Amino acid sequence: MIAVVTGGGSGIGEAICLRLARDGASVAVLDVDLDAARLTAELVGGIAVEADVSESASVDAALGQAEADLGPVDVWVNNAGIQASGEAGLMRLADDEWRRMLAVHLDGTFHGTRAAARSMAPRGAGSIVNIASVCGIEGCTGYPHYSAAKAGILGFTRAVAKELAVQGIRVNAVAPGFVDTAASQAIDSPLRQAQRERTPLGRFGRPEEIAATVAFLASEDAAFFVGETLSPNGGIVTV
After folding, report:
1. Cα(43)–Cα(194) distance, integer angstroms
2. Which residues are tagged catalytic?
3. 238 located within any domain
4. CA 132-135-136 angle, 5° bins
5. 236 in any annotated domain
6. What tens digit of pLDDT does each residue of 132-190 get?
7. In a domain, 239, yes or no
């Protein structure tokens, strides 16, 4: 199995790369930070590819490089994203912050899904997993741009899943709750405490738990899942 993971240089993306490699995949680690991608690639015995998912040409080139080195892609995970810079709120949110958030999360998911589908369709097989967020399900106060981007990913997933299923390509989404990563640890302590208290399980999720959900959707065990959203969120939202 050949797997490509965007944003694989750190956090949840790194955990996804580790899990897919453990399950036997050859992994191409895509990241805008090539040094970070290389570190993950060393851990999984894969390859590192520099890519800016907000640029379609960059994604297409990255896919070409990954397939030249490893072979035709079987699994593509759209994980790349950026942190919201503090609790901006609607009225303080700048135009460029809004556009950048959607460009990386939503445009990036579109670019990756389209590139992967173009490769997978002639072979009539493949799995694409898009990383959304619990914020895309219920909306997160103070983060309208992040919530909109992640909600867009969910709608996009449902639409393209119906289109691509007839070509043998399964598309699904994972919408994590609050996860303990290096990026999340940079959030102010009171906000982290509030996030923890909002979670009925009383703790943050672990990157490995999100990776396990991705691995399931990428596997044949999920062969009848089309356009679904699995949300490992500790009970914040039940759907």
Report:
1. 34
2. 146
3. no
4. 55
5. no
6. 999 999 999 899 999 999 999 999 999 999 999 999 999 999 999 989 876 655 555 66
7. no
